[in-house]
Amino acid sequence: MRIFPYIFLMTVLMVICGCAYPISQEMRAKARQDLTYPVVARNPVAYTGDTVIWCGVVVRVQNHLQQTELTILETPLHSWGEPMDEVYGRGRFLADK
């Protein structure tokens, strides 16, 4: 039975898919890199409408009739766009959709 080539091919495909950056290039190009959480937290109104990429751990979810509100503990991003441990949290922010 020649199953090894299929197992090898599936393993390679899973590795390639697992290495994809979680945020699209278009969104990364649109986001302002200079706007970190500590900068915006000092004066959030000044940055209304700007696109940022922040990350963190969801600590609370509230469902409303027309939207869902997430409370997120912001943490810095690793080089692959994943959140660092909660120990590095710098504050909380709300996200709604």
Describe the protein in words.
The structure is a single chain. It is built from three helices and three strands. The protein has one domain. Strand 1 and strand 2 form a beta hairpin. It is elongated, with a radius of gyration of 18 Å. The protein is α+β, with helices and mostly antiparallel strands and 97 residues long. A three-stranded antiparallel beta sheet has the order 1-2-3, with no helix packed on it.
Question: What's this, in brief?
Answer:
The chain is of the alpha+beta class and 97 residues long. It has helices at residues 4-18, 25-30, 37-42, and strands spanning 55-63, 68-75, 91-96.
Which labels suit this protein?
3 strands; 28% helix; 97 residues; alpha+beta
Q: What is the CA-CA span between the terminal residues?
A: 52 Å
Low-confidence stretches: none
Q: How many distinct domains? A: 1
What general form does the structure show?
Answer: elongated
The helix/strand order is HHHEEE
Share in β-strands? 15-25%
| Biggest beta sheet attributes | 3 strands, antiparallel
How many helical elements? 3
What is the rounded Rg? 18 Å
- Name the strands of the widest sheet in spatial order: 1-2-3
Helical/strand content category: alpha+beta
Q: Based on DSSP secondary structure assignment, what is the total number of beta strands?
A: 3
What secondary-structure arrangement, pairings included, does this model have?
Blueprint: H1 4-18, H2 25-30, H3 37-42, E1 55-63, E2 68-75, E3 91-96
Antiparallel strand pairs: 1-2, 2-3
